[in-house]
Amino acid sequence: MSATVFHHGLQTIQVFSNQDKSLPFNKSSHLSPWQRISPNNLRLRPIQVSTPHSSVDNPAQLFENNKTSKPKKKSNEAALILIRHGESLWNEKNLFTGCVDVPLTKKGVEEAIQAGKKICNIPVDMIYTSALIRAQMTAMLSMTQHRQKKVPIIMHSENERAKAWSQIYSEETLKQSIPVITAWQLNERMYGRLQGLNKQQTADKFGKEQVHEWRRSYDIPPPNGESLEMCAERAVAYFKEHIEPQMIAGKNVMIAAHGNSLRSIIMYLDKLTSKEVINLELSTGIPMLYIHKDAKFMRRGSPAGPTEAGVYAYSKKLALYREKLDEFL
Length: 329
Known about the structure:
By secondary structure, this protein is of the alpha/beta class. It has two domains: 3-48, no CATH class; 77-328, Rossmann fold (3-Layer(aba) Sandwich), CATH 3.40.50.1240. The chain has helices at 89-92, 106-118, 133-143, 160-165, 171-175, 199-206, 208-216, 228-248, 259-270, 274-277, 308-312, 316-328; strands spanning 3-8, 11-16, 35-37, 44-46, 77-84, 126-129, 151-154, 177-182, 253-257, 288-293, 296-301. Mean pLDDT is 79; it is low at 1-56 and 65-71. Pfam families: His_Phos_1. Substrate binds at residues 84-91, 97-98, 134, 188-191, 199, 215-216, 259-260.
């Protein structure tokens, strides 16, 4: 049997050639052989890891090119789009939602589509969402409006079968796709025993001041739940470990998540204090744009004004990207 073995950290990927008669996802392989079809010789080839610190389990690796030509010079600028999910069914009912997996309302679907129209001229190379359906719906629906017409595809890495069964063998299809990585660390903060309760009835029972303290303080959690500080620890750690390196490498990223996980990330990006972040309000379905350049994040605004480019204050790179879209689409 002919095989190539790549070692990365403590794990091993065993990649089988097209001459192997055994199935590529037999029990003896350590990991599923994520492979592509080369248009030149139709041989299955491994997909290379793009960043030295990424794990072999990182599903974003599936979309990295495996070309032997010299790599392109990395860009010094990358866009970051933040979107809070559209209205959910429990938002509509005024219930504490937290980590309960509730879908969007019709209004929430419309908000996601409108958000997509507002970012349709901004490049997106990778998408990160929480593990909750309302954030995933928002990401997917918003991308239906994007002018580059690439297809967002959720990367399944929860087990070996999921990896093997969802692999893509067409180089051309990969080029027209955007990886969507889901992460529980980007979930809404867990509201503990408040989840499913009506907000007004809870305020009547425990008092407005107590409920306000649970909802708006930085370090006081609701019963058996998370504080904003606890939510920030996991969300910011994930952003710094997984998302920020992609942007340093020149990838344009969109994050569709939740009020508190996004507030936590904005606290990190804007260097807000704990007192400042508790007063930060994020509307559902309204995208915010940041530019990462020279190791700094710069906020370019959110589209509340009359013109998209005026509000976002397009950088030169984004303006050129917009011009190319106008030329070729």
